[in-house]
Hints:
By secondary structure, the protein is mainly alpha-helical. Helix content is 63%, strand content 0%. It is built from two helices and no strands. The N and C termini lie far apart (53 Å).
Amino acid sequence: MDRIKRFGVGASFVLVPVAMIFGFASHRNLADLSASTDVEKWVSEFHRNQT
Length: 51
């Protein structure tokens, strides 16, 4: 049982950062830090529609 726990912890230390890097790298407009104040624009961005 201890071996399984050690493997799980080790795998999570490797897989979680990889998943986070992939998620941030594939995020649209990550460098665009401007706040959207228009609700319709925000909803269209959320639904991946072009504005």
